[in-house]
Amino acid sequence: MELLIKNGAVYDPKNGIKGDKTDISIKDGKIVDKVSSKASVIDAGGRLVMPGGVDAHSHIAGAKVNVGRIMRPEDTRSGLKPRTKITRPYTGYTVPNVYAMGYRYAQMGYTTVFEAAQAIMKARHTHEELEEIPIIDKGALTLFGSNWPTMDFVREKNMDKLAAYVAWGLLASRGFGVKVVNPGGGEMWGFGKNVTGLDDVVPNFDVTPRDIIVSLMKVNEMLGLPHSVHLHCNNTGKPGDYKTTLASMELAKQVRPSKDRQVLHVTHLTFNAMGGTNWGDFESKADEIANFLNNSENVTTDMGQLIFGSATTMTADGPLQYANAKLTHGKWGNGDVELEDASGVVPMYYARQVSVFSIMWAIGLELALLTKDPYKVLLTTDHPNGGPFVNYPEVIALLMSNKKRQEEIKTLHEAVHKRTKIPGIERELDFNDIAIMTRAGSAKVLGLLDTKGHLGAGADADIAIYDIQPDQIDPSVEHAKVKSAFSSAAYTIKGGEIVVKDGQIVATPMGRTFWVDASVPDQHTDIMMKDIRLKFKNYYSINLANYMVQDAYVTHPNVVKAGVISVEVS
Amino acid sequence: MAVITDALCPFCGCTCDDLTIVTEGNKIIEAKHACKLGAAKIMGHHRIKAPMMRTDKNGNFKEVSYEEAINETAKILVNSKRPLLYGWASALCEVHKKGILLAEEVGGIIDNTASVCHGPSTLAVHEKGLPTSTLGQVKNRADVVVFWGSNPVQAHPRHMGRYSVFAKGFFSDKGRRGRKIIVADVRKTETANIADEYIQVQQGSDYLVISALRAILSGHADVVPDAVGGVPKEQLVKLVDTLKAAKFGAVFFGMGLTQSQGRYKNIDNAISLIFELNSFTKYVIMPMRGHYNVTGFGQVCSWETGFATAVDFARGVPYYNPGETAANDLLLRKEADAAMIIAGDAGAHFPANSVRHLAKIPVVQIDPYWNPTTEVANVVIPTAICGIEVEGTAYRMDGVSLRYRKMIEPTHPTDMEVLDRITERVREIKGD
Prior knowledge:
Radius of gyration of chain A: 22 Å
Distance between the termini of chain B: 49 Å
Largest sheet of chain A: 10 strands, parallel
Helix content of chain B: 25-40%
Number of helices of chain B: 17
Helix content of chain A: 25-40%
CATH architecture of the largest domain in chain B: 3-Layer(aba) Sandwich
Strand order of the largest sheet of chain B: 5-4-20-19-18-6-7-16-17
Oligomer: heterodimer
Number of strands of chain B: 22
Strand content of chain B: 15-25%
């Protein structure tokens, strides 16, 4: 099948195209140099064309998302939309059902989304949900930061075993990358305790969060994984946590990247750039984080932008969630996983007139606006922690219009003037910056820039056309039009197929699941498996033979190969 | 002879995954490591041989073809204004997905056996959330374990050995000797007999007793009367001390709590107690789920519809209002005008008035086994046994999903095939 998109105002940062009228040719799901005269034609009519959106951090599938749904029937009741001949029913706002997850991303022009955390033991559940999310390509990052084997091998300083474990863990979970959440803290939460910084020793395992992060970064690069270590810092969500964030970012200097990307992605910075010593003197330190990013090449981040209204916080950071539940006096879901990690789910309501939330709203925006290079700050809401992903168009409009920001600021708690820098920041991002933060940048951070996040020949034919003409709009003033256009794509094309037209779902093909198959020398795996077998014999509550995710749960796989080159033994 | 190792037991919510199954020909001759309950199911018993139908429920069944039975089922569902699709707990998640799609197609109500079991626990989770963990956390860490209104010795025989009482783990290498076991129940169960402490709660007083524990825990022992719900104050004060002294405590609750006076409020109160105990030390709480995959239905239904159970598709969008949309609400109001009962036994477990209504409306039963529901059915479609003859997914009581192995070849079509064919026929009749 051939398709030609004519007369689009194309933004394709990787290929240096900034709004030029460029034709895009599509054949068999890929972008090609040219197509025959038989190709169907879409006349973009000067409208905005971008690669399909790529989200590198969103909680879309798995145990904790479903805990959110089960805890929150009141959330499911918002966003209802009946079934049609093409679509299953939509439900939910912060915790949508699997169908709404795929449809809503596609309707915004997004075509690739990565679930940000799965415990290996619960990965089968993650994939059961991923299998039912329509349209988009997806994958899931696997938690390693508090796993007992990780800590054992870090303590032994045995990087070969650790690499073998990471490779095996990715296979077991059909995972795409290494996620680290509050390293060491997940284990300590098993007894209701936590680490307080990078140098606390985890009892019984005799390692520190610093050791864990550095070792996993080394191993990640040894294996040449497409994505870097993806870190949720220790102390996240506490006033003053920016110091731990900066100290964690510093660790990236100890490791050299194996690929053209960062060695450390530090996620959802809205929750990690907090100053002050308590909620009373709480302030934004986004400027210090931005300053670090402006002087470093090894670290990327994402915003985790706060959206006013309802949110459902969910994270493997169990102790953070108990602290949140104590603040809200509301529902508390906790879901610790033996030998692996913790987790928690707590509903939140971000009210405009609460000083802390006004400041947090500013942090994400400050970070994006004070960091010079948009490749270093991806646009996310840490869905649904900062707010649901359907609000990305709101975030885009805020980044592109100082006028809109000033209008918003008027509705917020006065603390936003005193304890953030946002009122004085005049920078307005352009469509190229936005295309980086939502496409090229996220694809690069994930290590998928060869086929995702751009429109050059060889890329997947994932494309969004939005109903605005970049040369005839002033986003600074007409921000409402910008928001509306990004909310409802004129066309979304996924793998060469039109899936959204005029904001409506017109087809629901099944997307692929990306996972990484990393090879290590067999002898390293053999040694590592001796330890793993003991763990199952003595500690796990299921058998090793029933642990790994089977092929039946990944019916449309896209396997990315990685790994250290196998050593020939003569 | 063939041997299947690491096989999973399709009986209770423990979903033990360490069975060794020995088969000869297409017959299971041994189920090693299985408990009595699990082995009884795995070794097999009275199957329904072929599809059956009857118009008069007092009359005898006549054997029919699958085609006929499926066609009749589709007609019943399409002609119904308020069809109820109930059961699901003894089926795999792959079956649940097909069932939810069928419920959508016919605008019906789908509900599962949690309705008469741990449904109230779900309502409590709506109110308070659920601080819990996987069972391996309990195995490796717990030094205080409470069974409240649950009796694992008889209902979940291997729970104690594998996870909660005798199991040894990393921080619990002494096993039983390193744990304090507490049982709270209205009668001295067999589990109570092996406990270190038995709290005899007066029938219907669980809420009061939990409230007293919360009062004592928060430093208000002075307001607690000399006895609460039949339990002496001294025993309650001592119990709070024991709970607080734990390094890791776990509370397992059963239908003694969910189906006695107070119902979901009992669980709500118990979860609040756990929340508060976490200010002192680590605690988790977990429902003792009955059928091996009743948890799985709640999971699948939640990710597909947003609601865990009792979902009404009459409006084309999922609508959930237990008290209005659960199976017994519908039957007691005489609102359901047809029912499809699959992998669950309403005939045996529903209140008499619900079963009376079932006797009056067209009922389709899809199940490998003859059971009391068969007695009120018009159409009976026997299927292969999930987890024995069909591989697929189920969720353990702690939400860990596992893949069941096929032990022997099925002699009947699977539930998935039957539901696919019903859905296909429904679409044909509706002209979609």
